[in-house]
Amino acid sequence: MEERLENIQLFINGEFMDATTNETFENKNPFSNEVMNHIAKGDAADINKAVLAAKEAFTNGPWGQMKVKERMKYIERIADLIEEESETIARLESLDSGLPISQTRKMAARGAENFLFYSRMVQARLHGDAYQVDNEFMNYTVYQPLGVVGLITPWNAPFMLLTWKVAPALATGNTVVLKPAELSPLSANILANVIQKAELPKGVFNVVHGFGETAGEALVKHPIVKAISFTGETTTGKRIIKNSADSLKKTSMELGGKSPLIVFDDANFQQALDATVWGIFSFNGERCTANSRVFVHQAIKEPFVEALKERVQNIIVGDPKENDTELGPLIDTGHFRKVTGYIELAKEEGCDVFQGIVPKEYQAGNFVPPTLLLNAKNNMRVCQEEIFGPVMAVMEFKTEEEVVRMANDVEYGLAGYVWTNDIKRAHRVAQAIDSGMIWVNSQNVRDLRIPFGGMKASGIGREGGHFAMFEFYTEPKAIHVAIGDHPIPKFGIK
Ligand code: NAD
Predict the structure, then answer these.
(1) Which residue of 156, 209, 234 sits with most ligand 1 atoms within 8 Å of its CB, as the best mutation to test the pocket?
(2) 30, 269, 400, 480: most buried, per Cβ within 10 A?
(3) Are residues 114 and 190 in the same domain?
(4) What are the tens digits of pLDDT across the range 294-324?
(5) What is the DSSP string of 326-390?
(6) Are 243 and 386 found together in one domain?
(7) Which residues span the domain enclosing 124?
(8) What are phi and psi of 207, to 5 degrees?
(9) Is the pLDDT of residue 116 over 80?
């Protein structure tokens, strides 16, 4: 019998409460598929309550009028409290999502960093520009918060991804309604607890749990909400853009991926191997930037594939609570069926499927073994569609031109990875690949100042750094001031 947890409520206007309908939904543990607790099932009425509280907090509460330094004290307090709670966050996140605890520990630490980073960023960088126009005008810009912003997050790295959004949204002075993914609701309430402990003014931060089609859509359509920052599937993103059109909302879209990793024959073999394995099997393969398509140069394909097979057989698949587990269970049975369905499809499409081992005692969980789709072709569905599990297609190439063409021959454009010791080729290929982010001779590591996001079907806009601050969570206002008596056209004078 797995752990039983307390039920979870909504957090609106500074208070934890049940849904208006009193309805709840089950939250299951991906390791056992047993019910861990029940979650308040918010809908349009709860979203409306939360939006009105956030609007009141923005318009009449102290948050909007607060000095920046004072607001940042709250933001830094949140960071400190997350740090204090980090082991609880890591443990609950692992229970809720099936992610190995060694990885959720890092995600919790990153959550605290996101708040600290935006406190520093806003204090140092959130300022406008001045434009002197001869002796006639002084024009300047100020960056103002939008008001109430809606944040909608996925289940694959729940806590880290919601802090990506909540930290810049609050630090720039907005108020927030968060709709976390229904499959991983726990860590949003830890943040609500932290924010309550940090004594943020009521209504500044609100959480409404519930389903995408009800709570999510109500948030997207709410006329008071100024902007929606969304991370999730491409099809959901398209629907959100359509639904936000009537109220002319600003939207930020972080969507799916099918990212290529290219290994040239002069690459550092061991490092490229380490990065390839980690890039697909970390986060249980449920990673938007996963290198789910690997292109290996013909000259090294055989030893590289042999080395991949050896790693795949040795990956530690197991209980996410154990420190040495490298790969845990997928989020739920529905996703398990989707991923295993793709593995069956790969066989039908002509791939040789090579898999690691799931120990027998873990049959109750949503475990998919680490999987290689060997001898794949880029035009197969398994190479074109996002599988979002521990499944990597392996392909061979001969020339740079051919591999760039294949890497780009896909709907998505989120990330890409290039391994070569030829400096000119490294830059050439990095610039030729159509994706928002490219790593050269590196696994996926990201400094918080760098823009994160994709092109093509992988998204619109960027998160992180000053991009989130200036391009999304604030509105630039231009103020034009005459400093002399410049001539003004005279109409209506005889
Ligand atoms: P999803 O689109 O199913 O759900 C994401 C969120 O949207 C959930 O909170 C859900 O309740 C909500 N939602 C669903 N339908 C909605 C609607 N009609 N209106 C409003 N909200 C709605 O995505 P998921 O399965 O939770 O997450 C996995 C996906 O997220 C993958 O495609 C992955 O690549 C992507 N992802 C992208 C990034 C990135 O930065 N580009 C990062 C992480 C995950």
Answers:
(1) 156
(2) 30
(3) yes
(4) 999 999 999 999 999 999 999 999 999 999 9
(5) -B---S-HHHHHHHHHHHHHHHHHTPEEEE----GGGTTS-----EEEET--TTSHHHHS---SS
(6) no
(7) 10-255+458-479
(8) -125, 125
(9) yes
